[in-house]
Amino acid sequence: MRKPFIAGNWKMHKTVAEALELADGLRESLADVATMDIAVCPTATALHAVSEALAGSNIGVGAQNMYWEEQGAYTGEIAPPMVKELAQYIIIGHSERREYFGETDETVNAKIKAALAHGLTPIVCIGESLEQNEAGETVSFVRSQIHGAFAGLSASDAQKLVLAYEPIWAIGTGLTATPESANATIRTAIRDVLKALYDEETAEAIRVQYGGSVKPNNMAEFIVMPDIDGALVGGASLTVEAFSGIIKNAVAALNG
Ligand code: PEP
Fold it and tell me: What is the pTM of this model?
C-alpha cells in the first residue's frame, strides 16, 4: 500500500522571514494529518530556518536542487551532504531546471545516485512538453525519461524514489491533464516500464505524484485515481490556505 505524499515546491519564492511564516502556519494547520506524507521544499537560503521550524512535526523538508559531487570547486552549487544536514527530500530534474539550467537525463541520473548514497529521497520530475503531447509522443518521451532516470539503479534503490509526473504544459498555466489521462500515462509510461525494467513489486511500490496546476478544488479528483499517489504543487503551495486546503481535501477524498 503506497502512502499518499503531497509536496510543495516553493521555487524561487520567499525570504527567510516569509518562509518561516508559511512553515509555522502549515505546522499548525496540518498538525492532525497522519494518513499522508507532507513536505515543503523551500529555497536553499531558507532550508535551515524551515527545517528547524518544522522539526518534530509531520511536515518533511526537501531541497529543490543539488549537485552530485561530494564537495569541491563548483561555485554556487550545493553538495548532497549539505542537503542531508537540512532535508530528507530532494527534487531532481524539475522541468524548469531541465529547460533553463541544462539538466539532462544523465545529470538527473547522477543526482539520483548521489541522493540515494546520502540517504535522501529523490522526487524525480518527468513529463512531456505541449508539442510532444500534441504530437502523440507523451508515452514514448516519458518512457525515455524513466529509462534515463533509473539507469544503473537496483530494484531496492529504485523503490526509494518518488516520481512526479508533471506535463510541462500544465505547470503554472492553470491547465491540468485530466485525472484519467494522467493516470493512464502513469500506468503505461511509468509503471509498465518499471515492471519491465525490474518487476511488478517495484513498479507497484514506487509512489507517483501528479503535478501541474493542482489546487484545493481539483486535488480530490487526482488523488482518487488508482495510480496517482499525491501531488507536487507549485503555485498553490505558497499560502497556508491553499496548501493546507489541498492536503485536507485529499485526506477527505480518500476517506470518503
Ligand atoms: C511544479 O512546479 O512542480 C508545479 C506543478 O507547479 P504548479 O503547481 O504551479 O503548476
Answer: 0.98
